[in-house]
Design brief:
alpha+beta, 25% helix, single chain, 29% strand
């Protein structure tokens, strides 16, 4: 049986990471059983984010890019201009989802999006995210609070990938990083984030 509830899609454009994280926390803390779920579509200025159990040694060198220690799972990653980010603010009880199932749906949405461009991609159970030929193209992280989630998924579109060289991406030394612009996709981050939101909705509403 398909499950479907209204979801508000909010394209927020270029926004500061810290302010957005705080807004997600506030939204989640204030929500009630009647609060509609939302997906926020954003890009961030250059920033490293470290997961709640993140190990400091995965930041290999200081390069002037700020580091924010955040409350999502996972290790260190990089966000910057040219990356399409979808933050999922969902009541998981409403959707009858556990974290593992939601992660699979998030990965599946990126796989579906890339498949539409004839690019084969896959998720990995040992290292959450989406990969094309063993190069990571999308990373994800979540925080669950009172049965609701926030944070989400970041798809590399048309970035300067150099800052990834200063970290062990998601805690994996030597992990290769790729992006859609290097795979022949010319669509903008804004266009791809909109398409990603639709793929996320399709995955959410189908078992």
């Amino acid at each position: 049986m398909n499950i479907q509830f209204p979801v508000v899609i909010k394209p927020l454009g270029h926004v500061d990471y810290l302010a957005t994280w705080q807004a997600m926390q506030y939204f989640t803390a204030q929500r009630t059983a009647q609060t509609l779920d939302e997906i926020w579509l954003v890009e961030h200025p250059s920033v490293y984010t470290q997961g709640i159990a993140g190990k400091p040694e995965h930041l290999l060198q200081q390069n002037g890019i700020p580091l924010v220690r955040t409350d999502r799972g996972g290790q260190i990653t990089y966000h910057g201009p040219g990356q399409a980010i979808a933050y999922l603010l969902l009541d998981l009880r409403r959707w009858q989802l556990n974290v593992r199932a939601l992660v699979r749906k998030m990965e599946g949405a990126v796989v579906d999006l890339l498949h539409a461009y004839r690019i084969e991609a896959q998720g990995r159970t040992d290292a959450p995210g989406v990969y094309v030929d063993d190069a990571k193209i999308a990373s994800l992280g979540l925080k669950i609070r009172h049965g609701c989630c926030y944070h989400g998924i970041a798809l590399n579109v048309a970035m300067d990938l150099a800052p990834f060289a200063a970290i062990n991406p998601c805690g994996y030394p030597g992990l290769r990083i790729t992006q859609t612009s290097d795979l022949g996709i010319s669509d903008s981050p804004e266009m791809l984030s909109t398409k990603l939101a639709q793929k996320l909705l399709a995955r959410l509403t189908n078992p």
